[in-house]
Amino acid sequence: MKKKKKTIICTAAAALLLIISGVLMYINSPRYIIKNTVMWYEKDFTLPLFCQKIKFKYNKENGNYTGKFQISKNDKDRLLEKLDAAESRATAAQNAILRSARKQCLEDMEEEVLNTTGVVNLLVETKGKKVVKRDDIEPEKIYPEDWMVEKDAELLAYYCTLPRYIEGVTLFQDTLRGREPYCYIVIYKNKDDKYYLCIKRTDFSDWDGPIGGK
User: Fold this and answer.
1) Do 200 and 122 form a contact (C-beta atoms < 8 A)?
2) Contact 106, 73 (CB under 8 A)
């Protein structure tokens, strides 16, 4: 009886240790880290489940990271839809915030509007009253790391995201030298018809930002 009880205890302890190890591995994985940084408030953007990690460099001290992942065509389509929806949501929230700011009633806004992650499509620009695709972007120069985007890349998406910050109003208040951390997201296809997702999160402590971007 004692032997059986000891076996049960050992099995339970091993199972608990396995669960704890699994949780620790997940919260330190690129998928979890990206989920909690790209869409700062909503947390509904992260890596596809079965993508292939090319490289991921993470600085635990400041939360900055640089990552590249190979994704499938279907994953690419789903990510583009998510980014497009996120941009529409962010634009609507920004317009509502501007209207409330003019009336000086920001504190009365609904949290899901006020605390909406900022999302900007850097592939386009406004000229007059028209939104047009930019033709001045060199994909391989977006990031400082030469392994991130290949020279002959076909740029499919180029976004930046950041937590919306209004002093004393929004949930995010932890700025560094008055600047919010940005995530720069690129989806591209190379000459071999392979798709890649590249993400760089930075507080600009060691980088001034992309060429031709914000």
Assistant:
1) no
2) no
Contacts of residue 124, Cβ cutoff 8 Å, sequence gap at least 6:
131, 132, 133, 134
Instruction: Count CA atoms closer than 13 A to 94's CA, side-chain side.
Output: 14
The alpha carbon of 128 is separated from its chain's Cα centroid by a whole number of angstroms, namely: 30
Degrees to nearest 5, angle at CA 58 with 54 and 59: 160
Close Cβ partners of 5 (under 8 Å, ≥ 6 residues apart): none
- The helix/strand count (H/E) of the chain reads as 4, 8
| Spatial CB neighbours of 196, under 8 Å, sequence gap ≥ 6 | 54, 68, 69, 70, 71, 149, 153, 186, 187, 188, 189, 190
Q: What is the pTM of this model?
A: 0.84
Q: Which helix (H) or strand (E) holds 89?
A: helix 73-102
Mean pLDDT of 137-166: 93
The 10s digit of each residue's pLDDT in 4-52 is 555 555 555 444 444 444 444 445 699 999 999 999 999 989 999 999 9
Do 159 and 45 form a contact (C-beta atoms < 8 A)? no
> Structure tokens of 164?
């919306």
